[in-house]
Protein: Beta-ketoacyl synthase N-terminal-like domain-containing protein
Amino acid sequence: MTGHTGTGAGGPIAVVGIDCRFPGARDREEFWQLLLDGRVTAAPVDPRRWSADGLPDGAGTPIGFLDDADAFDHRFFGLSPNEAAAMDPQQRLLLQCAWRALEDSGVAPRSLAGSDTSVHVGMMSSEWGTLHLSDPAAMTAHRGSGNGYCMAANRISYHLDLRGPSMAVDTACSSSLVAVHLACTALRSGEVDTALAAGVNLVLTPALSVFYAQAGLAAPDGRCKPYSPDADGIGRGEGVGVVVLRRLADALAEGRRVYAVIDGGAVASDGRSNGLTAPNRFAQAAVVRSALHRSGVAPGDVTVVEGHGTGTRLGDLIELAALGDLHGDRPTPALVGSVKGNVGHLEGAAGIAGLVKTCLALQRRLVPASVGIGHDLAVAGLAPLTTATRLPAGTVRAGVSSFGLGGTNAHLVLSTPPRVRRPGGTGGDATVLVTGSATADGLARNVRALAAAATATPPGHAAQLGWSSTVVKSGLRFRAAVGAAPGRLADELDRLARRLDDTPPTPAGPAGPRVALLCTGQGSQYAGMTAALVRCCRPYRDHLADAADALGPLRDGDPDTRVDRLLTGRPAPDIDDTGLAQPALFAVQYAMGTTLAALGLRPRIVLGHSVGEIAAATLAGALTLDDAARLVRVRGAAMSALPTGGGMLTVRAGVDRVRAALGDTLGARDDEVVDLAADNGPQACVLSGTVTALDRIREQLRATALDSTVLTVSHAFHSALMAPAIEAVRAVADTLAVRPLQIPLASTVTGTVLPAGAVPGTEHWVGQLTGPVRFAEAAAGLGDPTHTVELGPRPVLTALVRGTGAAAGATALSCGPGPSATGAELAEVVARLHTDGLDVDWTGWFEPVDRVPRPLPGHVFDPTARFWFSRDAGATAVTATTSAGTATAPATDTAAPVPRGDLAAAVLAAIGSVSGHDPATVGGDAVLGRDLGYDSVMAMRLADELEPHVAAGLDPAALAPDLTTVADLIDHVRSAAGARTRGGVPT
Structure:
């Protein structure tokens, strides 16, 4: 979204994302319910704001306050406690609201970095600045950047790296609606492709309350009563709202949800009226008329008007008269109301409150009743919204007005969103849901929010919810994901949240997981293997069909022996027949591996046990699907055609111990054959040969206290008894167009790692028939993978790898658990790999019908960190409270300890002084910028703090916020101070 979409500028604008906090409502849905319930939010003055004792009349008038206006998740945005405490809380509210609005629009906020997205913020007061900038002696850099109208918009652009216009707008009470109009203008001109428009208002001092009272504008009970005979003045309120705007053509092309369409708008001034703050009826009518004209809409086409409606008797009468000038001759009156009856006059945020209410009403085709409104407006062409009203079918238009105290008037014309038929999703397939957080403790909160969304989503749309989560909830440092069948998603998310409560997550590594793929050998097959996966996983189903096409019927003339039918048909042919089992296992492994490859997984190494090496080499790029299918089919058929009578014996001991126990028994002797078939590790090997020889050997082993088990097999695989199949396999192997390996292959044929570029030729595949499976040697070459992923119908190699001691510490994942499979196993593997850092190409998982945006819960921010102000003896000081999370440094990757010593303590003390973090919680691997919220200005302050401890100046590179860890800084300070180590203890 960094460039123009090519659909052209101009035309209507779509509201595609909304987030808000208003009195009594923490989000968009709570606000809507508040409107439907007709609640009024005016309440006594919060004592944390001020005491009305001794203040002029009006200071104690009730106000609609926000709950928890002091809460701010500073760690999510990488801000130190000191900086967060210095910021105007209006900036804090806007940051969190903007993030959630972008999520609601169907994009990951970080994905807009570098784009021309613009930010337009309407606000008419910055009382925080009034409180904190009046004492020059207490000025800090953070107080400077934490205040000011422009910074409210600029901070959003900075934190999200948005490169479009970024501005604050102050036209008094019309500020936020003017901001929306400017954002629409930027979109229509083609200057930007996405715009955020916002309004915010917090009441931190009684100044305006006193002003309204002295001007005769204040309602004594703090309640606005718009357009009512009982109207007696303004009731004040607080709030923040952000809308995300796109050109309608772009929004529809992208499949975005559209709340409402802004057809046009206008902004104009009252000019000279009978007073600077007095409204002008004719100017108000003119701005509405201009907005209608620009929208191509006649007054009679407007069904509902969200008016300014402050509840001042003179102001409301003038506004109604202006509307009557436009609507007076229409046969069906326009419905008129004002949100101020519910939440009060939000001043700079008043327009955005009215806009959000109107957008929700148009989307849901229901207009809530207007609280406090008169039952008879006594104006031709207008009717009061005294009851909730269902909107008629077809396109419905609405107007939204907002008038500034100094005469700047704004009006927008909106319409219902176009009806777009959204396809139903795939009903029965397993899916993946993801979420993320910038902090470790935030992950569980957001997993629980996603669980609630999954519970409310019909199973047929679960995949669409999953797709939306992959688009919106990506790009954050800590990841969580689950894979499950549709009906199990909420349960799996609940289980994950509980696990996160017990075991804090670690950040996904930037390099992603190092994966070793393991392909199981013959013996893991069973009737109906992976049938559940065929039913529940479309990518696997598709790739299995490709393999089945390449293999064809495994018995000529019998279509039921096509692999895809063989695995799911009833009754199925004998899957243990070697001629069926080996091609079927290959197909299963190929489909699993290709599914993961299509999602973006590039393993570091592959390994296949016996016949599994054919699948491993194919996934590594040495064989085409068609060549591999020919090889595995001929191999299985040739081995199946050999005379029966051979057997295999697994021994719970290593090869050296077995050789010592058997002496020279191994090898051909008279009419007996006994060969080492597989070296599976220090506690497991397999012998293969004639049955009579194996019976004798079993007695020998028992005499030396070695346990063994007879395997149920049709032939003595990997022994000299397989030699008659060599020529058939050679004939095919000679024709293979073998290509260089693209991924290293830990070969169980050679017991070595064949590097990328090696070419396993004819002798490799021929020698595999009679030679032993050198699994233990091959496993030793796996290196240090972070994950092993076993491809096959049930896990076999995972335990064998563990038994060899290879891949120690790797997370073991299996794509097939055996007959207990639910069909969600591949989804679970994908979810875990994504959680651990794999950047998945989700188009390889979700079908086009599922790539449909669905609503998701907004990010759940940490509510425990609080930042407010206090007054001491007439002075005002900003303090960060000691609430949980406020001054605690975030968990880092490994929680490395901090080096000890006096200089280390001095560095930690300086970090605490500059940032506000509790030094006791700062880890040695904490990065100054990412984890502690430092920027270049703070780094220079830190240098000043440390200067008395160093003999030479600090190297600026040692304070680079995004590169320096706390341990690095301590080491550098020691070096600069000329510290020496005495007796092994740092000074």
Summary: Confidence is low (pLDDT under 50) at residues 1-8, 873-882, 891-895, 979-987.
